[in-house]
Q: What sequence folds into this?
């Protein structure tokens, strides 16, 4: 499901400068036509919110009881007393500690490099003139249609030849930069970065990298933050390739989670504690930066 | 990588005519031209290098491997077998089973998901209190990894003590074996997919809905169109390209489905895709051939078949579109 990441916006590339709102505003939601919500709408939305949150809530409930209580009928709906001891057990016994650190490294490096390379490329596609620009941009968009899973056999062979099997670089390198990231930054910069700023930099004799550093980066910062978070979420949760190339001696969080459920004696509350532990960092991020992530996803959507 | 070709001296040669001495100025102009011409390519290069090395090359090489017999333990020994792998795959019941499962799970998970997302987006588009809360709440499943989600739903769908069967029991319905029976298993797996992606798709629809000009609604309500009419005649056509986009993405996701059926019920050391392969998808078959049966050549053949399936789906979609535009 990695292809499901940030979507492309396919509207016409060059908007008239008159309609350009200033940088930061682009990532906020715009007002559309809106009726006021009636009671029914609220009821439905509350149901939706409960359905969205309940599985995670119940993960916490199950992670805070013990194995026998989890398997009773009716199932428990309120948290028990064992949350922290179960989390500690998952951290130690189930290699979750190592997995969390690995995932932090993998997702952190991937998100950083994606933001850097995507901003560079996005700037070039949005504001620099060069031969073949449109063809190359179409190529970037086209690559989004290629599911990475299809090349997994040669990729695996490549990694074992490089000696990277079971090593984190095997997971990091193939996703150093993504097409969606490039396209997202391009869309953002072509709207948020006035041509005149780039021109002014040229007149002052600044070379391209200097323009990038001192003119583009300050404008791009809010979009870069959003791209960082969304890429981080995807890298943290990526499953197929890490599962294939890593093993339990050196797993990322999703890989370690599969092993949790594979034991002969299934300790359900331990499994749930692991699942909770592996999700907590992202949940924390969503609680703190929910507004930015929501608006980032919406800003990247296809309009019209 | 990107910096090497663009390391022109920083702002040393402003084109001011007051500076004299010709040679350095010409050198500066040359560097400037090199920078203007070369920098864009240097900036976009990292993406293409990464894509070429880790996506394009493997994809192409997959077809070459699929014409060989390669074993996991001896990856450098490749024995040419021409189309044998394809012939075997064509005659292999597991392949057709996995293909059918991929399609049915794909339909069961994608269609309700997008319809619910459409409804949810419509609700989120109302002006209301706590709208940010509802948006973030609908995105919470998206923050949950496949692995964590599949583990929770495995327990919720558990036969003996799972919540769903308990709830069914309270209204007098017999417990369902959500793992061992084919259709319940496929429904349960689809539920995981639906849960994870509905809110995300809803936000995409919401963004598109907010870009619809308000005067279209005014015109429609002046014509006396009901809310429902407005929804079907203004909203849905207004977000058409977004709908197409989400269909494309969900279809690609559905052909690649792997984590949900892998973790659901079994765990990685068990059988992949159920005891009777009742929910084995093509993604699982690919994995099973390569990393359980150690036949990388066959695994590559399955990957290639998945690619063809994807191409086929889009050709069919194109055809339907063309036929529909001709009839209308």
A:
């Amino acid at each position: 499901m990695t292809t499901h990441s940030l979507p492309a916006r396919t509207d016409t590339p060059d908007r008239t400068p008159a309609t350009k709102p200033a940088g930061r505003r682009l990532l906020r939601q715009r007002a559309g036509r809106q009726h006021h919500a009636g009671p029914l709408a609220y009821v439905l939305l509350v149901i939706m919110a409960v359905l969205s949150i309940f599985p995670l809530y119940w993960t916490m409930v199950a992670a805070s009881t013990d194995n026998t209580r989890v398997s009773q009928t009716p199932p428990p709906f309120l948290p028990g007393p064992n949350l922290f001891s179960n989390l500690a057990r998952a951290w130690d016994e189930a290699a979750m500690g190592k997995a969390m650190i690995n995932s932090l490294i993998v997702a952190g490096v991937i998100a950083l490099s994606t933001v850097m390379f995507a901003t560079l490329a996005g700037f070039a596609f949005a504001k620099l003139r060069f031969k073949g620009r449109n063809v190359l941009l179409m190529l970037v968009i086209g690559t989004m249609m290629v599911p990475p899973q299809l090349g997994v056999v040669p990729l695996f062979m490549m990694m074992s030849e490089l000696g990277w099997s079971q090593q984190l670089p095997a997971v990091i390198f193939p996703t150093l930069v993504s097409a969606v990231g490039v396209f997202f930054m391009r869309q953002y910069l072509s709207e948020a970065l006035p041509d005149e700023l780039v021109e002014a930099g040229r007149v002052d004799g600044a070379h391209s990298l200097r323009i990038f550093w001192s003119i583009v980066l300050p404008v791009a910062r809010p979009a870069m933050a959003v791209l960082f978070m969304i890429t981080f979420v995807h890298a943290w949760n990526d499953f197929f390739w890490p599962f294939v190339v890593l093993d339990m001696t050196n797993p990322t969080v999703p890989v370690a989670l599969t092993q949790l459920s594979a034991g002969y004696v299934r300790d359900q509350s331990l499994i749930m504690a692991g699942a909770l532990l592996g999700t907590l960092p992202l949940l924390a991020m969503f609680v703190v930066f929910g507004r930015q992530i929501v608006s980032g996803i919406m800003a990247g959507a296809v309009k019209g | 990588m990107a910096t090497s070709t663009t390391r022109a001296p920083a702002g040393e040669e402003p084109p001011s005519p007051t500076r004299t001495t010709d040679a350095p100025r010409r050198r500066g102009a040359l560097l400037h031209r090199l920078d203007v011409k070369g920098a864009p390519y240097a900036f976009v290069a990292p993406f293409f290098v990464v894509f070429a090395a880790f996506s394009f090359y493997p994809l192409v090489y997959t077809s070459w491997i699929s014409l060989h017999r390669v074993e996991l333990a001896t990856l450098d020994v490749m024995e040419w077998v021409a189309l044998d792998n394809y012939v075997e795959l064509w005659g292999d019941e597991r392949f057709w089973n996995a293909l059918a499962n991929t399609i049915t799970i794909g339909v069961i998970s994608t269609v309700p998901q997008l319809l619910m997302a459409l409804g949810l987006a419509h609700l989120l588009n109302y002006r209301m209190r706590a709208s940010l809360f509802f948006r973030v709440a609908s995105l919470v499943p998206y923050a949950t990894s496949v692995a964590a989600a599949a583990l929770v739903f495995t327990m919720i769908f558990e036969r003996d003590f799972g919540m769903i069967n308990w709830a069914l029991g309270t209204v007098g319905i017999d417990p369902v074996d959500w793992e061992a029976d084919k259709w319940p298993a496929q429904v349960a797996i689809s539920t995981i997919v639906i849960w994870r992606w509905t809110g995300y798709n809803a936000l995409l629809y919401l963004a598109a809905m907010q870009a619809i000009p308000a005067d279209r609604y005014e015109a429609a309500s002046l014509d006396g169109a009901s809310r429902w009419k407005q929804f079907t005649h203004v909203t849905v056509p207004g977000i058409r390209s977004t709908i197409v986009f989400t269909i494309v993405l969900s279809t690609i996701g559905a052909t690649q489905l792997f984590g949900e059926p892998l973790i659901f019920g079994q765990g990685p050391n068990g059988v992949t895709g159920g005891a009777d392969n009742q929910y084995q998808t093509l993604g699982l078959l690919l994995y099973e051939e390569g990393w359980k049966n150690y036949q990388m050549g066959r695994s590559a053949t399955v990957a290639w078949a998945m690619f063809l399936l994807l191409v086929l789906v889009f050709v069919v979609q194109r055809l339907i579109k063309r036929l529909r535009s001709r009839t209308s």
